[in-house]
Amino acid sequence: MWLSTKAVLAAAIEMENGLADRKVKVSVVIPTYQEGKYIADLLSRLAIVNDPLEVIVVDGGSTDETIKVAQQFTDKVYQIDQRGIARARNCGARLSSGEIIVFLDADVAPPPDFVERTVTAFRDTGAVGATCNIMPSGPRIPELVFFTFYNRLIRSLVRLKPHSRGEFLALRRTPFLRVGGFDEDLACLEDHDLAFRVSKLGRFIFISDLTVHESMRRIRKMGLANVLRTWIVNYVTFVLCGKTVSTVWKPIR
Prior knowledge:
Number of strands: 8
Largest sheet: 8 strands, mixed
Structural class: alpha/beta
Number of domains: 1
Distance between the termini: 56 Å
């Protein structure tokens, strides 16, 4: 019997499902580079999650304490010989075994029940990917106003033009592999690009009852206006030309 590509994908997702009836293995992939000051906080939060959880750290050549700290929390710590956040995320995904892969940045703070809320969202058998509210840690008023607006914008556009930031991006394993993972030629917007590509295979959803908090280190260092300007310029050039102006996403430590 002949089956369409979407039918084959739907069948694979059905095999991954039964989410309401059993524990689903979730893999968390964390790319790092010089994150020795931040990674312990995130990994200590993941260590107390009750749900089945595989934690994978992929480092891009740190010379600080990142590797040493990470190894205190997980035995799945890997180093790659070339920097690049998309490259690190793809490596971690290939090494993972979870049915759902959650990509987190090293300086975020997810709530204790984020795995449960993510798995619940993926009980929607048509869902192939998801993002959630991303809010600042210890926000100043302009940051609070902007991120509240930004989350509402992403949520309202999720069906028309799916977008996700790398602070939290959850994907079913099969669709992720089918689209080839992250584009390693993109220094930024690789998360948005993947969310849009995977949405062609099913629904990309917004988990409205989940909020992950992120460090404001880049915004505090560069200034909110400068960060927004960089985001907008990269987004416009990506939409128009398929590539970004930024060729390296400089670390802020």
